[in-house]
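Q&A FORM
Asked by: J.P.
Topic: structure of PKDCC kinase

PROVIDED:
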Amino acid sequence: QICLSLVKLLFYLAHSPLGSIVLLDFQPRQFVMVDGNLKVTDMDDASTEELSCKEDNDCTLDFPTKSFPLKCSVVGKCEGINEKKNLFNAYRYFFTYLLPHSAPPALRPLLSDILNATGDLRYGINETLRAFEKVLHLYKSGLYLQKRPLLLKDYISLKGFRTVEGEDYKCWPSYSHLGCLLSIHSAEEAAAICNSQSQCQSFIVTQQRTWTGRPLASFQSSWTDLIPDTNAVVYIKRSASSGERL
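REPLIED BY: S.T.
REPLY: Here is the structure written out as tokens.
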């Protein structure tokens, strides 16, 4: 969410009515999240000036660990230097820390491609935004899910119930520090996740949604202490419930 919002912001800056705008003091502390969108808190160090040049050799974009040769345009300006400076700063301050860690396994190669392409400035802001929107579409639609055996049949579902909240086993990347709370596309995906975790014996799907509209599921190591909740469905492994009365 943070990276996509940043890319949308940089896309606007690259195509603003004032021309391409560069953020000269590009640091994480210069941004804040407002209603799920990244905003710049200080525009004092923004500029529409692009480096003047006489030849291509005048257009080297330098960073502490990398340098990029750019073209000198016919009007004597380094082509795309403001856009590329913003994009590489987004890569080194945001993408490298946030992109590799929390996506479903099937989407990680696509995010790795974005990471590598922006780190080498092979993508401009237009290509970067399209790549992010493609990943978002796959994520929201569930098209990233690979065909696999149907596992939900191995679970008993109880509508209108959930387990008592409490600290349970933890997983990554959980929305809660007290247990294993993950976003899912469907109960079928939740069943696959539960089967992949040795501690998991049940999971609860509620009406809570993430910013992409995906429901949240809580994965738990037991299924006892059920309480009524009209907005929830608890799924219990048949193997865990054998010998017990529901």
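FOLLOW-UP: The longest strand covers residues 226-237.
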